[in-house]
Amino acid sequence: MDRAELDASAVSMPAAGAVPLVIEIFWSPAAGELREQRLSLPAGSTLRQALLASQWFEPSAIDRLKAGIWGRVKPLDTPLRELDRVEVYRPLTVDPKEARRQRYKDTGRRIVTRHRPLGRKA
Q1: How far apart are CA 55 and CA 113, in angstroms?
Q2: Nearest 10 degrees: CA dihedral of 3, 56, 60, 81?
Q3: What is the torsion angle, in degrees rounded to the nearest 10, for the CA atoms of residue 52, residue 54, residue 57 and residue 63?
Q4: Cα dihedral across residues 75, 64, 59, 29: positive or negative
């Protein structure tokens, strides 16, 4: 555990007598880089409070973030549950359809999925 994680866990410790809520938070600030952190928060904590407790983001920037729980974008006032996976999403740099078109143009090969093999229409 590095210094930032130790500081975050000290800030996010629950009050005496409260049952702690353990969550994991994931963020990829750049392609190929993944940060993850386990936090212990007071019961009833929200997505916004988890982002603040991580200390990865400026408090003023949190309202502009797109975040979710288990792969689904959620509002920042969403209450968290035990063992939730909080994810912070980066904005797309390229439209996925345009990226597929460009790969096809470069390689000349169709992209085949297991749901729709070449030449068959389901």
Answers
A1: 40
A2: -110
A3: -40
A4: positive
Q: Kindly give, in sequence order, each residue whose CB lies less than 8 Å from that of residue 57, ignoring residues fewer than 6 positions away.
A: 51, 65, 88
From CA 24, how far away is CA 26, in angstroms rounded? 7
| Distance, CA of 39 to CA of 108 (rounded, Å) | 47
Query: Which pLDDT tens digit goes with each residue over 24-74?
Result: 999 998 888 999 999 999 999 999 999 999 999 998 989 999 999 999 999
Q: At what angle do helices 47-54 and 3-11 cross, to 10 degrees?
A: 140
- What amino acid occupies position 11? V
In this prediction the pTM is 0.63
Long-range contacts of 7-15 (CB under 8 A, 24+ apart): 7/55, 8/37, 8/39, 8/53, 8/54, 8/55, 9/39, 9/40, 11/53, 11/55, 12/39, 12/40, 12/41, 12/53, 13/40, 14/40, 14/41, 14/42, 14/43, 15/42
